[in-house]
Specification:
Helix content is 68%, strand content 0%. The radius of gyration is 15 Å and the shape is elongated. It is built from 4 helices and no strands.
Length: 65
């Protein structure tokens, strides 16, 4: 069984990677509207970050920053 800490770290890494991969193709392109950029962010980055999060059982140390 994977610890919640490991799963959270993995999800943060994957979301960061997805965000970075869109750097040249989306974020730096001035011809794409902000609403389109936000839609892609929600569809790609947030989805990869939150996938499976509804099954995590968090303890107090997991919620501290």
């Amino acid at each position: 069984m994977v610890a919640v800490d490991d799963d959270i770290t993995s999800r943060l890494t994957k979301a960061g990677s997805a965000f970075g991969k869109l750097q040249d193709r989306l974020w730096r392109v001035h011809g794409i509207s902000m609403s389109t950029k936000i839609a892609v962010y929600c569809a790609v980055v947030l989805t990869s970050l939150l996938y499976g999060s509804e099954t995590w059982t968090l303890s107090a140390p997991d919620t501290e920053t």
